[in-house]
# Entry
Amino acid sequence: MDPIGSRERRPAPKRDRKRTNYGEDHRAPTLDDALAALRGLAEENEARSEKTIVFCEDRLTLLSERAILSSIGGTFLTEVTTFARYLSGPGALSKQGFVMEISEIIAQSQGELVCFRPGAAQAVYETVAQLSASCVEPAMLRAAAEGTEGILHSKLAGLALILERYRERLASRGLLDENGYLALLPEKFSSGALAGDVVFFCFSFFTRQAREGVHAALLYAKRVLWRIPCGKRGVLHQRGGPPLPRNRRRDGCAEPGLPPCSLREDAPR
# Structure
């Protein structure tokens, strides 16, 4: 088995061409309507003694748990979680730990960095996290820097150095950050961990690594459902829809219609 901090890309599980599972689209006019639909699904599966696992963003876990508990109470059949919580374990690095690591690297590399100072660790963390989630390698940043000059060259070269040393520190200490968790999703899902229905609830987008895990869920889960509120702002806005395989869109599958909205007709939209 690879070291827990290794950045070596794991091969995605092979797809079974005989099984075609694109998931079921369930859109809702508002977040409240989406929560009501989630509650109804949990009730149906509880009645059949079937398991349900709900993946959502951190900001929606409490709302989702409350919606489910309000109807079925305590249960061992339904779980609400995030990708990081689902995969976390010994050697997991928190967001605060991530920022501290970046701060130490910047402080120790001041003679080599032109644009970054220790006080900018939080901002640099956000950039490094996005680069990692998009599977950008230090060599790619250095190649991009070669075609530039001035401040842009210094920033790209500095980010390449920080990203490289950050990964080296994780690997040497046996740590795994949130982006490392996501790389393990396909392997986790293919191991038989998905025994029932899987719901991806109100995600605004999926990173490249998360999409690989979602595609694995489409292969190995009993059923995959998308619960998406289609409002205009904030968490109610889903610009691109779920990351369904391109051939589904090419084959002309119809978009699901919206159920009636729970808001009054004169309510602000």
User: Anything to note?
Assistant: Confidence is low (pLDDT under 50) at residues 1-10, 12-20, 231-258. Residues 63 and 228 are 15 Å apart (CA to CA).
